[in-house]
């Protein structure tokens, strides 16, 4: 889909997103919580950071209740909240989210899974931004070693 068509598509989705966003009781349906995460992604593409945070937080609370805090879908939302907090300059909150995502992903997916390594890399960037250069270097080396073990992607 071209950028122009995607932009028009997003404009058409926004009123529906706003309707869903204001629902009081979405229930315990994982598809609904996944939709809230997707709405966060939609708002992120539009630069609406307050709405992104609201959607990701609602998705996280719902997913934790519906499927548990260590499910890979829940951890995906935790990771994205970490990235959002990092972008907002909320470095302490970002670090907490990335550590939670990393611990869960290591356990659920293993230390060399691409999702785990993405969290390792984002944590490296965060440490660098915080001036924690030794921790950043350790994480960068870990991410590199994991990628090398994983081998080339086709």
From TrEMBL:
Pfam families per the UniProt record, alphabetical: TPR_10, TPR_12
Chain positions of TPR repeats: 75-108
This protein's name: PfsNB-ARC and TPR domain protein
Entry keyword Nucleotide-binding: no
Keywords tagged on the record: TPR repeat
Protein source organism: Penicillium daleae
SMART domains, sorted: TPR
InterPro entries: NLR-like (IPR053137), TPR-like_helical_dom_sf (IPR011990), TPR_rpt (IPR019734)
Species classification: Eukaryota, Fungi, Dikarya, Ascomycota, Pezizomycotina
Gene3D superfamilies to which the protein is assigned, alphabetical: Tetratricopeptide repeat domain (1.25.40.10)
Presence of keyword Zinc: no
């Amino acid at each position: 889909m071209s950028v122009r068509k995607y932009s028009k598509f997003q404009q058409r989705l926004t009123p529906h997103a706003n309707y869903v966003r204001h629902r009081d009781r979405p229930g315990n349906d994982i598809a609904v919580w996944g939709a809230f995460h997707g709405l966060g992604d939609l708002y992120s593409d539009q630069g609406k950071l307050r709405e992104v945070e609201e959607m990701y937080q609602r998705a996280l609370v719902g997913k934790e209740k519906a499927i548990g805090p260590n499910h890979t879908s829940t951890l995906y939302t935790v990771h994205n909240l970490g990235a959002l907090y990092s972008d907002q300059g909320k470095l302490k909150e970002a670090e907490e989210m990335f550590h939670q995502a990393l611990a869960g992903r290591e356990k659920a997916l293993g230390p060399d899974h691409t999702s785990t390594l993405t969290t390792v890399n984002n944590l490296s960037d965060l440490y660098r931004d915080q001036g924690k250069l030794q921790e950043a270097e350790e994480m960068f080396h870990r991410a590199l070693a994991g990628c090398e073990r994983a081998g080339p992607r086709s």
